[in-house]
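Hi everyone,

Forwarding the result from last night's run.
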Amino acid sequence: MEVIIVPAAPDVGSAAAGIISRLVAAKPGAILGLATGASVERVYAGLVLAHGRNALDFSGVTTFNLDEYVGLARSHPASFHAFMEEHFLGRVNIDRRRVHFPPTEGGDLPVACEKFEHDIRAAGGIDLQLLGIGRDGHLGFNEPTSSLASRTRIKTLTSATREANRSRFGEKEVPLHVVTMGIGTILEARHCLLVADGPAKADAVARMVEGPLSAMVPASALQMHPRATIIVDEAAAAALSLRDYYREIQRNKPGWQQ
């Protein structure tokens, strides 16, 4: 696990956008796993900027989103379809036929979830999975106690997660159920890139990076990944006991790792 500590939240977004931009430039047909939420808004802003300034081409890119609410219309402003449209999809030259979201409609969601998994494999697997982290250490919508071998499936949200997502719903109730990629699905990505900023994420970041591997902190499963990059600002890194060591590693990287 590589831990990169940057000064402030805007630096988290620009660093992550740089990693993704370099991948897309080198591999125009890249398969990206995409996340939603406040932590990744700056990442998408950086990608949109690279598209506009540097003509970064997304026309050959295929995307698979992490999760979506069950029973929420795609047009609802709190849906993750709407989030992605606002922050990324509607602002770059992506081919909509290559855009995939987890299934949330239909009479047999478990079968549809299996098809979503099949579609990821058929595309060649995810090259890079963008991730955020919940305050309780959840990854995607894999709440604490989720199986570390789980696949795309329906999950019931905790009251804390629903409260954390309430702002986009106004007076409406936050849906109780979602479909999310599982931890096992996420770990099959060739590169996992997680971003976090702010003091509210410090405890979760520390438990993910330095705590024991535990289903109570689903994000700790990234400790098992051969290529996991964690980008955090100083505030989110505050509880890391080895944060000075992580800075030292970054300063002394050999040239071929730069």
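The CA atoms of residues 209 and 220 lie 6 Å apart.

Cheers,
N.
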